[in-house]
Amino acid sequence: MTERTRVAPHQLTLGELADDRDLPASVKPPQALRNLPRPRQATRRMVAVVALLPLTVILAVKAASLGTQAMVNAYGMGVLGSTILVMYVSFGNYRDPSRDTGELAAFPLVSCLLAVRNDVDIIERTVRSLLAQTYPNCELIVVDDQSDDGTRELLAELAQQLPLTLITLDANVGKKRALVRAAEHSRGDFFVFTDSDCVLAEDAVERCMLAFQAHPGIGAISGHARALNGDRNLLTRIQDVWYDGQFGVSKAAESVFGSVTCVSGPLAAFRREAIYNYLPAWAGDRFLGAEFRFATDRQLTGYVLGQRWIGRRLKRRYYDSGFVRTVDYPERRWAVAYVASARAWTEVPDTFRRMARQQVRWKKSFIRNLFFTGSFYWRRGVLAATLFYGHALWVLLGPVLAFRHLIWLPLHGRFFLTALYLGGVLLKGAIWGLAYRSQNRGDGRWIYRPLMSLLSATVLSWMLIYSALTLRRSVWSRG
What we know:
Strand content: 5-15%
CATH topology of the domain at 99-349: Spore Coat Polysaccharide Biosynthesis Protein SpsA, Chain A
Shape: globular
Largest sheet: 8 strands, mixed
Low-confidence stretches: 8-39
Number of helices: 17
CATH superfamily of the domain at 99-349: Spore Coat Polysaccharide Biosynthesis Protein SpsA, Chain A
Number of strands: 12
Order of helices and strands: EHHHEHEHEHEEHEHEHHEEHHEEHHHHH
Radius of gyration: 22 Å
Helix content: 40-55%
Strand order of the largest sheet: 4-3-2-5-8-7-12-6
CATH architecture of the domain at 99-349: Alpha-Beta Complex
């Protein structure tokens, strides 16, 4: 019988405690994620307030006319209000947690885990970017999930030349199970995951480890991702600008509260103790009576965010697994952070058909995660919960509003309201475009951001319905 080890609880440090003494502890974000120097923090908050003033005026005008178009105005107010909140929290409060320490004092082993299926064109570049990290103590474990396009043969050649462990599977098991196979062979105290079509900056792992060292309360980290093929065509340029905002603004705002909801596939880092016991639950995740092969990134993040409330139950369910039986890590209220300086680039879809397939996968992930993370996320604090559930509401209402403004109103001759709706969509996109410009000085691609908002509102929002109707149809995907 295997001996089961109970790991002693980690002791909280002063840096993990909140400084908002007038708030209950469950609401406070960790001080470690909010410790801007006071003068600089005050300046950034003032700039954020001034920049958001036009949006605030528009919100006030909409509130004054709420009675005439209650449903539409309430939705518009909600979207504008959430945009104001996200922008203010991000620009006024976020600080990269990796910059809170000068240099690494120790170099614990980091296990870089990579699952691959049919990526022969880019996999060598991905592997070499992982092996070229400035962090000196890494191991690389690559799992080939029954590739049939030459990827397996290329990886075998690389394994003869480079310091990596290659595991080849004779049956396709999916990304989650492939990564769990890699974790079975890992020895590191930290895990770094990336997708098989991504390239990491040379210091990406080092930046993550600096943040982990500076803040013992951080259990998981998302890096910053941009499009690797962003200059290929109009569609990839639009996605590149959108990616920058989703990470540099949205994840930055969530990080202020230590509650990033999705540690995304291009660069995801975890403490071993924060996820190890939950890997079998992740691999065997079921939804609506069947195995769910999507929600890879969001679901794994959910185990870190919610383990204090659901961890013990999950470990009891998978007690027979070696991930649970051999070691028992304590359930903690981990912070999940975003490290802006940890950079990765990922191949984005360069045709609309590929983008549609990706969007369907993501929306299936959104639906699954809403039922899982949504069941406990309210415990993460009032403001963090407001961002999470508010965003979920806007996504769910998106197809309803699109139908009303793009089909119902034109059929009844009310074209002005349709034009007003599209104008509001473009205005919101312009605000996000200006946010991009403020973070990427001299980069004129901010002009593409309103196009993403327009594409999302008029086309992509409908895919939520299709995703819900085909929820149990699964294919291999990176996340």
